[in-house]
Hints:
This protein has 74 residues and is mostly helical. The chain has helices at residues 2-53, 60-72. It has a domain at 25-74.
Amino acid sequence: MLEEIGWIIAFVVVFIITHYQFKYCVPITVWTLKFLQTCMIILVCKLYVVFRVYGDFSQINDFIGNVTAMYTDL
Length: 74
């Protein structure tokens, strides 16, 4: 009897932890994915403008250096 009560308490505790995990982690994950998608869209737009509209390929090394520095500073 005492062992079953322990398992029921463990089940309730894990159930509550899982509830809060889905309550808070899912919105944070969705927000992070939206942020990364926005960064990728802006990156593609900037690459298009710099290389297609301006036709300036001389800044490619600086641009790649800035992008890699941005991710290594995280």
